[in-house]
Amino acid sequence: MDKERRMIFFCLLLAVICSPVFTEEWKAKVVKNLDALVSSCVVMPCSFTYPEKTLPSSKLRGIWHVDKKQDDRVYHMDQTRILENFRGRTRLLGNLGQNNCSLEITEIKDHDNGPYCFRIELAENEDPTINKFSFVEDCTALNMLPDPPKPTLLHSMTATQGHPYSITCSVIHTCPSHAPQLTWSRGAADEIFENHRELNPGNWEAASILTFIAQEKDDDQEYTCTAKFNGQKTSSVTLKLNVKHTVSYNHIIIPCAVGIGTAVIFAVVCIVLLKKYKNRIAELQNQEGTMWNRLSRLSRRHPK
Fold this sequence. Notes:
Elements: H1 2-22, E1 27-30, E2 33-37, E3 42-44, E4 46-49, E5 60-66, E6 69-75, E7 90-92, E8 103-105, E9 116-122, E10 132-145, E11 152-155, E12 159-160, E13 164-173, E14 181-184, E15 192-200, E16 203-213, E17 222-228, E18 234-240, E19 243-244, H2 250-301
Parallel strand pairs: 2-10, 12-19
Antiparallel strand pairs: 1-4, 3-8, 5-6, 5-9, 7-8, 9-10, 11-13, 13-16, 14-17, 15-16, 17-18
């Protein structure tokens, strides 16, 4: 009985250890829907797994095609096997050896909506083997945008004169390989900080932060942030700055300080002079007393 239990336990343990190896499947992970700006570019994130041993990129062939039409290729290593209107506009950004099949499409046309599906071929030699698979159930469709999205501004309602003030301009896009360029109508280069981050798979945010010391001359001035996308399309947003003026009491404080300082100096001088005057009187009184005493002694020595 104990032998049977040990055998069952061993079999279960072996199944747990080996299950990841034998249950690996043909799977692709993509973003089902993405926005794409006409005339710009888009990057379609993609990763995949296959039930074979891990192979280097040189042993893998990655292909992208339109929907379930495997012959309508939009990407292939051999450019002659790509649909003519996609030639020179697509490239594989991912490393197939690392299971990354991300695709970039540039110069987006208004009819490039897809959907696009990935196909992988495992090749041990020059000829494709029977190990190939098209992930037609996991494809990416594009939502065509004729106009670029507008940037958004994040800022405080009011700036305070003499204090730092920041304005953050950001825009969402789907082409991290050619991110939009954000520029300001005002501000020096050392006052601008740029940041680029992924919000979620397929969607990225480009941001520019302008920080400066608000001055009285900045009140009612317009600050415009412009996003320039790949393909030259632009969009802008403008902020009219409201600067809160700080109340200055210098015109009161400075004259008062000067007056108080003058009075203090005058008082000190008077005290010093008064002290010297008293000391002088005391010296004279002492001299007079001494002279009178001498005369008194002389009169006692020579009586009449």
